[in-house]
Amino acid sequence: MKRIITVQHTRSLQHENGMIGSLTDWTLTDEGFRQAQRIGVRLAEELKDTDAALYSSDLTRARQTAEQIALSMELKPQYTPALREFDLGEAVGKTKSWARKNNICPLWPDTIDWAENADGIPFPGAQSRRDMWEQVSVFLEDVLTAPTPTCILVSHSGTLSILFALWLGMEVRDTDRCLLAGKAGGVSELAEDTAGHRILVRLNDMSYVQE
Questions:
Q1: How far apart, in Å, do the first and last CA atoms of the chain sit?
Q2: Sign of CA dihedral 73, 54, 209, 23
Q3: pLDDT tens digit string along 110-168?
Q4: Distance CA 74, CA 80 (A)
Q5: Residue 190 pairs with which residues in a beta bridge?
Q6: Per the domain annotation, does 92 fall within a domain?
């Protein structure tokens, strides 16, 4: 059986400055550091005496979140580009306002980068959801075959939405009509039972960041 706990990186500068997240290497805000510390303390208590491994996106806002968790849990984070946020191509380094005016394919209403079609590319040079699907599926298979029964993954909203869909056995085209969204600091849990059924135990639990 495998247990996977995911953490969406905590509050970072792009949540406040109107800029695109994507591959731009934003840092956490002061509140983001405090949120990450609280997550670490609570996970350490919850997972005490548990054999766990910690993986993280190598982008700064995720690394900083993982570092705070690692301090409380006495773990060494393993950083990987496989858990990075979507590469938005020409939108990287631009404002969200720019993104709303310059997308090149149909998007879901009220989003700036979620294409209507899994193969849609919202900006020149951007990853499609199919691209991310392939990237995350390879990483997930590696996690499932790793010897450590409990894995903690620190990543980003878009990337985790793909991970959750993969876990539930969806097809990439299912993401044309559904989205498993998250919030900064949200903690989710995925598990297998003794028969190998995959379970979404909890999604986007925000209690970990509360004081």
A1: 32
A2: positive
A3: 999 999 999 999 999 999 999 999 999 999 999 999 999 999 999 999 999 999 999 99
A4: 19
A5: 4, 200
A6: no
- Which CATH number belongs to the domain containing residue 163 in this structure? 3.40.50.1240
- For residue 68, the model assigns a pLDDT of 98
State residue 128's pLDDT score. 98
> Is 205 contained in some domain?
yes
Which residues span the domain enclosing 195?
A: 3-87+128-209
Cα separation, 164 vs 44, whole angstroms = 23
HEC sequence for 3-47: EEEEEECCCEHHHCCCECCCCCCCCECHHHHHHHHHHHHHHHHHC
Ramachandran angles phi, psi of 54, nearest 5° = -120, 120
Residue 33 lies in a domain: yes
Q: Is pLDDT above 90 for 1?
A: no
Output the six-digit token pair for 179.
């989205």
**Residue for token pair 């993969």:** 166
Bridge pairing between strands 78-80 and 198-205: unpaired
> Distance between CA atoms of 136 and 134, rounded to whole angstroms?
6
Distances from the Cα of 81 to the Cα of 60, 67, 135, 154, 180, angstroms: 11, 16, 9, 12, 21
**Does residue 49 belong to any structural domain of this protein?**
yes
Number of domains observed in the structure of the chain: 1
Which helix (H) or strand (E) segment holds residue 187: the answer is strand 187-192
